[in-house]
Amino acid sequence: MKTKKLKEQIAKELKEKFEKAPLVVLTDFQGMTVAESNALRRKLREVGAEYKVVKNTLMRYAYPGTPVEQIKDSFVGPTGIVFAYDDIVAAAKALKEFMDEKDSKLKFKAAVVEGKVADYNMVKQLAELPGREELLGQLAFTLKYPVNAVAWSLENLFTKLVTVLENIKAEKEGAA
């Protein structure tokens, strides 16, 4: 049995996570085995997210004053929480992949994305976006392209200039 002090500490840590995480997803994990739960935790950890299972009574002390308070009615029955901090797209993809597996017993309850309530379709749309690394690659290409275009144009210009000078030299040598 947990002491009152320990429960207060857990509620405080949860509140900090609710405030800090831009993506919080509530799930129903009823029927999942320990192995499945560990696989989910591993998959989320790989993308910088985490999965917690905490009693609903403790969560009721943690959500007041946080964006998660908007979905407080979903804290019913077995509830697992996904917290994503850095790359919310990668976390949404990992969660969606796990939920889409053939025998997955994990069910979506509710979510808060960047302080706004989101349904499962919104989380699926988030999962379909390009990941952080892919977006950074696209940005780098976009920033690099104009520089490459100028360099190619200058190179092309110098090649044409050399060709013109060689033709003039050839004409002068032929006239001499």
UniProtKB/TrEMBL annotation:
Gene3D superfamilies: 3.30.70.1730, 6.10.250.290
DNA-binding recorded as keyword: no
Record's GO cellular component terms: large ribosomal subunit
Superkingdom as given in the UniProt entry: Bacteria
Keyword set includes Phosphoprotein: no
UniProt xrefs under PROSITE patterns: RIBOSOMAL_L10
Biological process per Gene Ontology, one example term: translation
UniProt keywords, alphabetically: Ribonucleoprotein, Ribosomal protein, RNA-binding, rRNA-binding
GO molecular function terms noted in the UniProt entry: large ribosomal subunit rRNA binding; structural constituent of ribosome
PANTHER family for this protein: 39S RIBOSOMAL PROTEIN L10, MITOCHONDRIAL (PTHR11560)
Protein family membership: Belongs to the universal ribosomal protein uL10 family.
Complexes and interactors: Part of the ribosomal stalk of the 50S ribosomal subunit. The N-terminus interacts with L11 and the large rRNA to form the base of the stalk. The C-terminus forms an elongated spine to which L12 dimers bind in a sequential fashion forming a multimeric L10(L12)X complex.
Role this protein plays: Forms part of the ribosomal stalk, playing a central role in the interaction of the ribosome with GTP-bound translation factors.
Protein name listed in UniProt: Large ribosomal subunit protein uL10
